[in-house]
Amino acid sequence: MSLLGFLRQGYRRWKLRLRARRILRGLFQQPDRLQGTSLKPVHFGRCDIVEIEQSDDEVRSITFEILRHPRPHPFSRQYHLVAERWSVVLPHGKPRRCGSVNLSRLRGGDGEPPGSFP
């Protein structure tokens, strides 16, 4: 592949990610589409796009992750770092949770086995 072809391919990927980011921003600005999930509009800033599925020149679905810091118990001082993976089928689908992984446990933070994504 020539340098020009490599640059064009990178530019197309960048434009696709930019379009997917705009779609996600619109999703998080519609509270009715987030209803029934644990997602809130303020979580958009923590979204990281993992995968974009497209056909022709149209985005069909987006898989994204959100980092959370939940407490395992209300009286515990311990915090965990959890990555939740979500997927949304476009144009009118609601986000659905695909899985989560406790990154603190993955690093051996509390000695329990780590979770995994399906």
Structural notes for this entry:
With 118 residues, the chain is of the alpha+beta class. It has one domain (3-106). Helix content is 29%, strand content 30%. The chain contains three helices and four strands; from the N terminus they run ααββββα. The protein has helices at 3-28, 31-34, 103-106, and strands spanning 47-55, 58-68, 82-89, 96-102. A four-stranded antiparallel β-sheet has the order 1-2-3-4. β3 (82-89) and β4 form a beta hairpin. The radius of gyration is 17 Å and the shape is globular. The termini are far apart.
Give the helices and strands, then pairings.
Blueprint: H1 3-28, H2 31-34, E1 47-55, E2 58-68, E3 82-89, E4 96-102, H3 103-106
Antiparallel strand pairs: 1-2, 2-3, 3-4
